[in-house]
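User: Run a structure prediction on this.
Assistant: Running it now.
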Amino acid sequence: MSNQRKLKPVEGRLVRHPGEDKRPLDPQGEVVEFTTYWRRKLNAGDVVEVPAEQPAPAAKGGAK
């Protein structure tokens, strides 16, 4: 199981990355290492998890 998740801030919130750069989390969502910092932000309601995009199913059948 991956320890990365795609998170985005809830509407109207500015959530910054931890560490020295403190850059804002992309409003469209960003894949982050799911650390205790991001777990706290998720539990507090500051961010939401973005569902993973499902690949389009392959076309079935073929030319005969």
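The beta strands are 4-9, 30-33, 47-49.
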